[in-house]
Amino acid sequence: MKKTALTLLALAFATGLTLAQSVDDGIKFLYYQKTKSAKEAFQKVVNDKPKDAYAIYWLGQAFLEDDDIAAAKALYQKALTDGVNEPWIWLGMGHVETLEHADINTVKQKFEQAITATTATKGKNKGNPDPAILTAIGRAFADGSSKTGDPQYAIDKLKKAVELDTKSPEPYIYMGICYLKLGGDRGGEAVEAFREATVRVPNYAAGFFRIGYIYQSQNNTEAMNEWYGKAIAADPAYAPVYFAYFDFYKNRDVNAAKEFLDKYVQYADQDCKTDYFVADYLFRAGKYQESLDKGKAMESGPCKDFPQVQVLYAYNYDRLGDSVAAETAMNKFLSVAPANIVTADHYVQAAKISARFPGKEDVAAGYLNKAIDLDTSKVNQAAYANTGATIFGKANRYGRQLKWYMRALTIKGETPSEAEYYRLSKAAYDAVNASTDTAAVAELFPIADSITNAYITAFPDKPQGYSYRVLIAKKADRDSTQGLALPAIEQYNAFLMKDSVANKKVVYLNDYYLLIYYTQYVKNISKEEGYKKAIEIAGKMQGLYPDAASEENKFATQTKNQLQSALDRYEKSQQQSGGRSNGAGK
To answer: What is the C-alpha separation between 393 and 576, in angstroms, rounded?
Structure first.
């Protein structure tokens, strides 16, 4: 079996060995994410040796790195048709099928066949599988989203690979990625795997970069800078770290983004992707027409079939206020782009563009759902859900807004901040207030009430939770006959009375609501008890404004006297009739 070039690559990093134009050279280009150069190197070998399975495998990998699944599939299928029915081709086809979401057991069967076919039958390695084959399996299942492949299966194979090959750093890189795909609390194991790659080869920048990228996804700038700095120190020519920095700063500091983009362009292949990133920077810098011109130049040249040009148009036209042109461009991109190159950001932008057209909020929501499914970062997923809430809020569809805010908090999985509770409570109020469907209000009220109660529990010294609970209850009880607001008002008043002087006006108005309820709407107590409760409340209102000359005191006193007279007449009539009637309305 042909010895893998991965170990030779590790040796090149460790010793500065200069490799001839070969498969080994192509692998090194792939390491630097220089796919154009890699494809040229691999293609040269394949042209010279059209049945070299190992070279064909790596040419296909270069196609996959360039997001061209169709080209890789065609290459591997042609090899099989031409009689190159060898383990490396099986691995390549398995990789393609993994990205196409084929039956995972069928894919693993191909991988197991490759392992069996390359297991040593004699010598000191007798009975051991080829670590290069195991590493390629790990590479396949490390590719794609968290829903692609079988990362645990790959980890098991990669653990065996690092036992058998004690020099190559690649197995640890794929192992770390697979740990991340497993999610949960496996991030620490991912960091350790990436670190082990740098232990094997100290100037292996990819290991440091991968650790930094984890911290970037967590918005931990300090740790990100530490590990990205180590990557640059290990190998200043490692272009991916500069692009990661550009990606980080492009929406934060356009000048810093430009510095890192220049570094990326210096070390990266000069290809359509590089041109696109330059055009993207022009957009971020507010140079929309220059960005459009760059895109048009790409479209009229070798990059005419580069799908992301349409994304460029969509972003710029949207910023220039031409929503129709923006939507047309984005729809074209989504219709022609292979699924594996469509990112969460693309779907988010598609959602924002769709939302500019009244009535297309549900279309926007569909795009946001795709973004959430595609992204593995909880921070990003929550941000997308909040974007959905904003879209529905602007459309005055408050019930949907509330659901998206709640989804964002569920994704986040942490105790909401005060700002989040406030936003959620307001959305709940707006949803109840806007609904004209009695059944819908009855369904919404318990949810909204639980939200404000949670707000109060989390921040008992803040007034907003109490006030929103009262407002929601009043709106849910449109005719005031259910008494939904009573517990909320009593709770709010107890809070406000901690500073009765400052809050007496609000307490007075709350008491007025209770006064009306007990005199006109109460049903669960007798009319006599209703009068007594109302008289008690009127007395409290007097106490809030003890100055007999104030309008508030006069109203409370007059109302209390009138209620007392009404109660006296009622009790006298009941004594004369010899009976009592239950219910305030009888």
So the answer is: 60
Does residue 473 fall inside a structural domain?
Answer: no
Residue 441 CA: distances (Å) to CA of 407, 411, 459, 475, 570: 20, 26, 26, 9, 37
Containing structural domain, residue 303: 271-331
Following CA atoms 283, 286, 290, 292 in sequence, which dihedral angle do they give, to the nearest 10 degrees?
Answer: 50
Task: Give the span between the Cα atoms of 180 and 173, in whole angstroms.
Answer: 11
Torsion angle (degrees, nearest 10) of CA 437, 439, 440, 444? 130
Q: Are both 572 and 551 inside the same structural domain?
A: yes
Shared domain check, 489 and 533: yes
DSSP symbols for 163-214: HH-SS-SHHHHHHHHHHHHH-TTTHHHHHHHHHHHHHHSTT-HHHHHHHHHH
pLDDT in tens, 211-253: 999 999 888 999 999 999 999 999 999 999 999 999 999 989 9
User: Could you tell me if 409 and 391 are in contact, meaning their C-beta atoms sit under 8 angstroms apart?
Assistant: no
CA distance 22 to 19: 8
Q: What is the pLDDT of residues 396-447, one digit of tens each?
A: 999 999 999 999 999 999 999 999 999 999 999 999 999 999 999 999 999 9
Please, are residues 391 and 407 in contact by the beta-carbon 8 Å criterion? no
End-to-end CA, the chain: 98
Q: What is the mean pLDDT of residues 264-276?
A: 96
Chain length of the chain: 586
Q: What is the mean pLDDT of residues 489-503?
A: 97
Residues 6+ apart with CB under 8 A from 58: 5, 23, 26, 27, 30, 38, 42
The number of distinct structural domains making up the chain is 3
At 134-181, the pLDDT tens digits run 999 999 999 998 889 999 999 999 999 999 999 999 999 999 999 999
CA distances from 155 to 106, 162, 336 (A): 18, 11, 34
Asked whether residue 476 is assigned to any structural domain, the reply reads: no
